[in-house]
Amino acid sequence: MGIGSPNRSAPSRPTQLSINGQIISLEIQPWVTLLDLLRGQLELSGTKKGCDHGQCGACTVLIDGERINSCLKLAVSLDGTEITTIEGVGSPQAMHAMQKAFVEYDAFQCGYCTPGQICSAIGLMSEGRARTRPEIRELMSGNLCRCGAYTNIADAIEDVLGRLHSQVREAVE
Ligand code: FES
Ligand code: FES
User: Fold this and answer.
1) Helix or strand (DSSP H, E) at 117
2) Cα–Cα distance between 142 and 146 in angstroms, integer?
3) C-alpha 35 to ligand 1 mean position (Å)
4) What pLDDT does 20 receive?
5) How far is CA 59 from the centre of its chain?
6) How far apart are CA 133 and CA 111, in angstroms?
7) What is the pLDDT of residues 120-157, one digit of tens each?
8) What is the pLDDT of residues 32-72, one digit of tens each?
9) Which residues line ligand 1 (CB under 6 A)?
10) Could you tell me what percentage of the chain is helix, strand and coil, using 3-state DSSP and rounding each to the nearest 5?
11) Of all protein residues, whose CA lies closest to atom 4 belonging to ligand 1?
12) Quick one: which atom of ligand 1 is closest to the CA of 59?
């Protein structure tokens, strides 16, 4: 478990979540993390478990559009929220711009960190704080890559951010 010592006698709690656009109602034991719920009960194994302690970013998903380490969130605390996992970001037939960029820039090797990197990069774009490559590297530093694909990951994100900024510039000109 990634969070404390669970009280196994505590009753399950009714929880409603929107997962990748689908509303689901569940009875969830109070010690179950969002990561374990996604990978176990919901069989959404695209979200990866690395450290299970909030230190690697492999489990990053979007909760109400914000990037979060799902191993650090108890699922019952998320009642009423909207959760997007890598399965909801895009599909092989209809990839998100960030997924396309990761393919184009060869921004992965084993791929284990990639779902978390992509969800984190999408969250980073909505935060609007990264405008330069050093800012991208700094603000993506919570997502580790054991294969060391950092240069290509930054290339992919920089490209998508650059295109986003030029679209914004064109819209205001
Ligand atoms: Fe959640 Fe590592 S598995 S941060
Ligand atoms: Fe292997 Fe990042 S691509 S851990």
Assistant:
1) helix 114-127
2) 13
3) 9
4) 98
5) 6
6) 22
7) 999 999 999 998 999 999 999 999 999 999 999 999 99
8) 999 999 999 999 999 999 999 999 999 999 999 999 999 99
9) 49-52, 54-59, 69, 71
10) 40, 15, 45
11) 54
12) 1
What amino acid occupies position 86?
A: I
Number of H helices, E strands in the chain: 6, 5
Query: Which domains are delineated in the chain?
Result: 13-89 (3.10.20.30), 97-172 (1.10.150.120)
Cα 23 to Cα 42: distance, rounded to the nearest angstrom: 12
DSSP, collapsed to helix, strand or coil, labels residue 148 as coil
Nearest to 41 by CA among 57, 28, 59: 28
- Contact criterion met (CB below 8 Å) for 96 and 89: yes
User: Tens digit of pLDDT for each residue in 80-124?
Assistant: 999 999 999 999 999 999 999 999 999 999 999 999 999 999 999
